[in-house]
Design a protein that fits this description.
This protein is mainly α. The chain is built from six helices and no strands.
C-alpha cells in the first residue's frame, strides 16, 4: 500500500532487499515467495530471487528520503512476518539495513514493527469474524 509512494527505482531496491532478507534464515517460505511474487507483479519488477550478493551501500543511495526509508523498513518487516514470526536472523538484517540508512532510532524501528504487527492482527481478526458464518 505505501510502496506506491516510492519511485520505480526505490521499489526495485525494496524488492532486492526483500529477496535478500527472505533468504536470511536459509529457508524462503511459500508465504515469502507469495509476497515477493505479488510485489513484483504489482510494480512490474522482474521476479528474481538471486539477491545474495547485493551491495547494500549502492542500493540504499536510491532511498533518498526519510519516507522512502521508513516504507522500505515497513515492507521488510512485513515480509519477515509472512512466515509467522520475525526471526533473529531477519531482525539482525533489518536492523543492519536501518543503520546503513541512518535510522538508528530504536524507538522508530519498534514503532514500524508495531505498525506491521497491528496490520497483521487486523487482517487476522477480520478473517476470524468472516469465518463465523
Amino acid at each position: 500500500m505505501f510502496a506506491n509512494k516510492l519511485t520505480p527505482e526505490q521499489r526495485q531496491v525494496v524488492f532486492d532487499l526483500a529477496a535478500n532478507l527472505a533468504a536470511a534464515d536459509n529457508d524462503v517460505s511459500e508465504e515469502e515467495i507469495g509476497y515477493l511474487q505479488s510485489f513484483s507483479e504489482a510494480y512490474g519488477i522482474e521476479y528474481n530471487l538471486d539477491k545474495v550478493d547485493i551491495n547494500y551501500d549502492d542500493l540504499l543511495t536510491v532511498l533518498d528520503t526519510k519516507a522512502s526509508r521508513i516504507i522500505t523498513l515497513q515492507e521488510l518487516i512485513k515480509l519477515s512476518y509472512k512466515d509467522g514470526h520475525f526471526g533473529k536472523e531477519e531482525q539482525d538484517k533489518v536492523f543492519l539495513i536501518a543503520q546503513k540508512m541512518g535510522l538508528n532510532d530504536a524507538s522508530l524501528i519498534m514503532r514500524i514493527e508495531k505498525w506491521v504487527r497491528q496490520g497483521f492482527d487486523w487482517v487476522y481478526e477480520g478473517e476470524q469474524m468472516l469465518e463465523l458464518d
